[in-house]
Fold this sequence. Notes:
This protein is an alpha/beta fold. Helix content is 23%, strand content 30%. The chain has helices at residues 42-53, 62-71, 80-87, 113-121, 134-143, and strands spanning 2-10, 57-61, 90-93, 106-109, 127-131, 148-154, 173-181, 187-194, 199-204, 207-212. The chain is globular.
Amino acid sequence: MRLTVHEFMTLDGVVQGPGAPDEDTSDGFTAGGWVIPFADDPVFGEVVGGWFARTTELLFGRTTFELMRAYWPQVTDGDPASVALNTLPKHVVTSTELGGEEWTGSRRVEGDLVEAVTALKAREGGELQVHGCARLAASLHEAGLVDEYRLLIAPVTVGHGRRLFGTDAVPRGYDVVEHRASERGLTYLALTPRAYEVAATAVVDGSEVVVPA
């Protein structure tokens, strides 16, 4: 399976608490709920529906898993996200047993994260998807395990908050494999990682030219 990471993101790179003011208030975050005003944008529904149409299995960090386990079993109207989330296999990276109300197909990921995710990727299927889970996504980025990043960027800034790519993120380049924009300012980018490249400029015969590093 391909490992794909899906994030709602602000213009200043924050991915924390997109769905509600009280969704994730860790580290004093008080600006939650910033993506929901755009939920009626046609591009929002088309993009997110397209994500879940490609899901084979799901990979969660514990915090996001608990948020989704409390919410999505209540949605039974055939929404593509609810169908995928409520029926497909869900793998949860956590140091403790899952406990609580059972959510169909949920199991704990055991052992070393990189080894466990590498084994999951070796299974038959289309996509192993991560939705949200900023800490987990950052670890997968560091390990070079992500095959595609899908970012739906809202035209808002919130300042403080958790980011997918922090100041210590491993440098990488990206190829844009899909992009869309809506009239309300949502921007969608699907990116595949490639080698990080740098260059410089120099003046040659009176003209500025690009010089590979």
